[in-house]
């Protein structure tokens, strides 16, 4: 059975991967900013323009989805914790009730 801690750990991993991906994309964007120094002509300009118009937006959507996944996992971990607490309280009350009989 998966524990709330396992779920929270998965949420942190998703967040960390999103941050790593974002950092890698920033490095690539900086490199792309200097593309005209080594890739001359229309092809280099077209590549940079396409990246800025399409790929960058796709990456932003991906970051958003990854953060949504992290939030969902955090909520799930919280709900599992609450359910576990309720189950433990119910078991305790049941044991106490049996002890009084």
From TrEMBL:
Please give the Gene3D superfamilies that the UniProt record associates with this protein.
Answer: ESAT-6-like (1.10.287.1060)
Matches recorded under InterPro entries: ESAT-6-like_sf, T7SS_ESAT-6-like
Q: Which Pfam families match?
A: WXG100
Task: Write down the SUPFAM superfamilies for this protein, in alphabetical order.
Answer: EsxAB dimer-like
Where is region (Disordered) located?
77-101
Q: Which residues form a coiled coil?
A: none
Family (UniProt):
Belongs to the WXG100 family.
Q: What is this protein called?
A: ESAT-6-like protein
Tell me what organism the protein belongs to: Paenibacillus oralis
């Amino acid at each position: 059975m998966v524990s709330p801690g396992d779920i929270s750990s998965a949420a942190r991993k998703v967040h960390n991967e999103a941050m790593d991906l974002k950092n890698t994309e920033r490095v690539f964007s900086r490199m792309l900013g200097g593309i005209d120094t080594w890739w001359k002509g229309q092809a280099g300009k077209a590549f940079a323009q396409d990246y800025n118009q399409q790929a960058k937006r796709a990456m932003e959507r991906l970051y958003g989805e990854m953060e949504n996944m992290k939030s969902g996992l955090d909520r799930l971990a919280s709900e599992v914790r609450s359910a576990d607490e309720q189950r433990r309280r119910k078991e305790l009350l049941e044991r106490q009730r049996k002890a009084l009989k």
